[in-house]
Structure formats: C-alpha cells, structure tokens
Design a protein that fits this description.
The complex is a heterodimer. Chain A is mainly α. Chain A is about 70% helix and about 0% strand. The longest helix of chain A is centred in the first third of the chain and has 37 residues, at about 1-40. In chain B, the strands form 2 sheets. Chain B has a 4-stranded antiparallel beta sheet with strand order 2-5-1-6, with helices on one face. In chain B, helix 1 packs antiparallel against helix 2 (about 70-80).
C-alpha cells in the first residue's frame, strides 16, 4: 500500500514538473512577442529569429553539456543515462525510486524523474538567454548573438547555477550561503549581466542619444504584441515560480505551491499598478510600456522568495519592483545605456532587489549571504560575458553596419520583412 | 471657377463633408497630409524620453466650384471645421482655368 502511494507521488511530482516546464517554455513566446512589439517594424523578423534560435540553442547546449556542468556529479555528455535515471533496467528504476521514496518519507524531498528535472531546468536557461536578446535588439549581428548564446547556455549559466542551486563551492574557494527560490539572481540578474556586458561593447542604437546629450525616444512598433507578450510571461511565471517548489505531493507542500501562485500573481499586479501610477506622475501620460515593464518587474522581484511572504507583502515587494524599474529605465538612458525593451532594468536591477529582499520574509536567509551570492553571480556572468562578447567582436564583429541599421536588420540579416506587403514585391499590388 | 483648398483637423472631415453637401457641392477630393504651422509640431514622452512630432497629421480637402458658390463654401468649411483651438487649419482659394469631365467631354462649369 505504501509503495502504491509512493508510485503515485512519483508520478504526481514528475507530472507537476513537466507541466510547469511547459508553462516556462511558453515564456519564450512571451519574450518573443514583447521584444517584437518594442522594436521598430524594420527589425521585427530578425528579433523573432533570434528568439526562436536562442531557444533551440539553449535546449541543445544544455543537453550536450550544460546540465551536466550544473547538476552532474561528474562531467558527462548528452545526458548520458538519463533515460532510466541511471538505472540498469525499468525494474531497477522502480526499485530505486521506491527505496529513495521510503528514505525521504512522505514529507521529505521530492523524488521525480531525472528527465523531468532536465526538462524543467532547460527552459530556465532559455529564459536567461531571452533576456539578452531584448537589450541588444535592433543593432546586433544575428550570428554574433547566436554564437554568444552557445557560450552562455553551455558554460556561463551552468557554472553559476552549480554554485547556487547545486550548492557546489565556487572554484573550490568558498561556498555560498545564498537563497534564491526560482532565480531572481540566478536566472534574471544573470541574463541582465550578460546583456549589460553586450550593450556596453555594442553601443546605443543610432539616433538614440544626440550629441547635445538629449535622449530621443524610439517608439516600439506594435504595442498589442508587447502587451500579449507580457500576459504570456505573467502566465508562464506560475510555472517558473510554482514549479520551483520542486514538489506537489503532500498537504503542506501543495499549500506552499498555492501560496507561490498567489504571491506571484499579487506581485505582478502590484508592480504594474506602481509603474503605471509613477509613469503618469512623472511623464503626465499613462505610458503602457512602463506598465508592462512594471508587471514583469513585480514578477522578477518576487521570484527569489515567492513562498514565505503574505499576500500583502508580495504585493508590496512587487510594487517596489515596479517603482524601481521606472527610475532605472530613465537612469540607464541618462547613462547612455541603450536597452530598447528595458531588460537590464527589469531583470537586473529589480532582480538584485528581489535577491536582497529575501531576508525580510525568509528568516533562514541572511543579507550577507544574499549580497555575496548576488555579487558572485553578477561578476562571474558579467566578466565572462564581456570576454565572450569581446572575442566574438574580434572574430566577426558584433554590430551591423550603419547603413544596415538604417534600413533595418530584417532585410540585412534575414532577407525578409515581418510585414512584406509594404515592400512592393511582385504581386503585392505596389 | 475657383478651387477651394482647406487644411483641417482629421476628426472634422465628416462635419465638413456634410456641410458642403448641404450647400450643393457636387464633389470633393480628400488627401491625408502632414505639416506644421505656427506651433511647429509638439513633443511626446515615450518611456521618459522625449520625441518630437515635427509634422502633425491633417486632412486636405479640395473642391472646385462655380464662382458664385465660393463664399458659401468658405463659410461652410469655416463653420464645420472650427474648434476654437490651435491647429484648426487654413483655407486657400485659387482660380481654375478649365475643367473637363472625362466620360462625357463636358467642359467648364458643366463639368463640375
């Protein structure tokens, strides 16, 4: 009888992982739509190409070596042995799972399929990489970006992931005492750090900053898409944070999952309201794009600890994230750091805030441990990314020509346009 | 024959069209145009950064009418397109030498 329950628990926790993984996978669509909406129409097809390609590269690189670097006991290639959790046969797998389940007990750590763990982890890698594409949009070479995606998802991200979620010591030097539930720092700030390194080497879009110091707006072409993308991300985040509970079977843990869903939603709402109101006060108009960034900022802020806060605390943490993001976007513009979609502000600045606010609701975390952890992640990702971007720049260049940037990277990089009825091709009626 | 050309606010087009129909104008030509006047466009904010709208969208109406109708046309447009606010537009009148209806070959006032 007990074994039957353990079998059910294994099935339920594995299934929960897979469903949450599928939700997070859908966030790739959210990023694609958000970014496609926030760039100009002449750069739409190229940003979409980057988004679908980076997802595929993330999945492939993490399969080849990334997952093993992050979670493996020793370095293996191609997820060797994952089909049966490393067991010799299906019967042996069943026996091992039942033994592990009995040791863990009903209230212990989840026992689930390794393949489901890989599936859940791999979509996080893609999320981190998606953050980069928005910040470098409209001027970076497609293939330079994809080359960076190989390095980021196959090496840079798995290394810092192994120090944090897998509790490995940092190059054998020190161990982190760092708490990050679903990855405000590990995923979001890491993506933003890589993006910042790229943007610093890349420079701003032509025309963004005048020589007299003025900041010029370059409005996005399709705000319905940006709004759809934000809602998709909001939905996918339930898998992102909810799945990070790593288990569903059991009363207390199922209750924790429900609280994570509740708090994740509350923080997004708080972030959106805060950003909308602050933008209205600062700019005199209700800037939709700021409101969208505010919702995402609320989500990033709560991601480091979505289980412990009360609903009110979650709303306030989200609202502070939404407030920070408005000021951060304006400040980065003053520093001439051109980020078309606000990715560095949403995921980096607010990600850091999310990490640092954990001790406020989680008594087990310390502010010192959070600072050291965040600094380790940031400097590792930033410096290795800077090196990677620099090497790519030396080899093939990272920026398109001025003429290509003016005409749009859709034609230059992809040879097609997102909205071809305006190009006057034969048969188009123009 | 005179051509009355008016630059108006786009949202006033329906009112102007109605006003002109009422006084017996047989046809007008409408073009979507952009331009600036004394205000020289205006500025908007996007994500906290300013962007200048140098040219504002307007609608250009052209109507060729008999000399006797000109004053009424001007009055109808002025009345219909007036909001009292900056940017209501302008009306220009020029002389038209000839008009031809392509289908029938009629010329002059008969062609209007």
């Amino acid at each position: 009888m007990e074994n039957n329950i353990f079998e059910l628990q294994y099935a339920m926790d594995t299934f929960y992982f897979l469903v949450c993984g599928a939700l997070v996978m859908w966030m790739a669509a959210g990023f694609a739509m958000l970014e496609a909406g926030m760039v100009r129409s002449k750069n739409t097809a190229e940003i979409l190409t980057k988004n679908v390609a980076l997802f595929a590269i993330s999945c492939t690189m993490y399969m080849i070596v990334g997952y093993s670097i992050m979670y493996g006991d020793e370095l293996t290639l191609f997820l060797s042995g994952i089909g049966l959790d490393g067991a010799a046969s299906a019967d042996a797998l069943t026996a091992t799972v039942l033994k592990e389940s009995a040791e863990a007990g009903f209230d212990g750590d989840a026992v689930y399929s390794d393949a489901s763990d890989f599936f859940f982890q791999v979509v996080f890698v893609a999320t981190a990489m998606s953050i980069v594409s928005g910040a470098v949009a409209e001027r970076m070479k497609l293939w330079a970006f994809l080359l960076f995606a190989v390095v980021m998802t196959g090496f840079i991200y798995p290394m810092e992931g192994s120090w944090t979620w897998n509790s490995q010591s940092v190059f054998g030097l020190f161990e982190l005492n760092y708490s990050d539930y679903a990855g405000s720092g590990i995923v979001h700030m890491a993506g933003a750090a890589a993006a910042l390194a790229g943007v610093l080497l890349l420079g701003p879009r032509k025309g963004k900053y005048s020589s007299d110091g003025r900041v010029n707006a370059i409005p996005g072409a399709n705000l319905p898409l940006a709004t759809l993308g934000t809602f998709i991300l909001w939905m996918g985040w339930f898998g992102f944070n909810g799945g990070s509970t790593l288990k569903l079977g059991g009363i207390s843990v199922a209750n924790e999952v429900a609280n994570v869903f509740l708090n994740t939603n509350a923080a997004a709402a708080g972030g959106l309201i805060a950003a909308l109101v602050i933008a209205r006060i600062m700019f005199g108009k209700a800037d939709l794009t700021m409101a969208l960034n505010g919702a995402l900022a609320g989500l990033v802020a709560i991601t480091a600890e979505p289980a412990d806060p009360t609903p009110l605390q979650a709303t306030i943490i989200g609202a502070i994230g939404g407030a920070i993001v408005v000021f951060s976007i304006v400040t980065l513009d003053k520093l001439k750091i051109d980020d078309p979609v606000g990715a560095i502000s949403v995921h980096g600045v607010v990600g850091l805030f999310g990490v640092l606010v954990v001790p406020y609701t989680d008594a087990d975390a310390t502010i010192g441990g959070q600072i050291v952890g965040a600094a380790t992640i940031f400097f590792w990702v930033f410096i290795t990314s800077l090196i990677a971007w620099f090497v790519i720049k030396m080899i093939m260049g990272i920026r398109v020509s001025e003429e290509e940037e003016y005409e749009g990277v859709d034609i230059g990089e992809c040879g097609l346009e997102a909205y071809p009825e305006f190009t006057g091709a034969k048969g188009s009626g123009l | 024959m005179k051509m009355v050309m008016a630059i108006i606010k786009p949202f006033k087009l329906d009112d102007v069209r109605e006003g002109l129909s009422e006084i017996g104008v047989q046809g007008i030509t409408v073009t979507e145009v952009k331009g600036f006047g004394r205000q020289k466009g205006h500025t908007e904010l996007y994500r906290g950064a300013e962007y200048v709208v140098d040219f504002l969208p307007k609608v250009k109406i052209e109507a060729v009418v008999d000399d006797g109708l000109v004053d009424q046309v001007i009055e109808a447009i002025s009345k219909a397109a007036n909001t009292g606010k900056i940017g209501d537009g302008k009306i220009f009148v020029t002389t038209v030498e000839q008009a031809v209806r392509i289908r029938t070959g009629e010329t002059g006032a008969d062609a209007l």
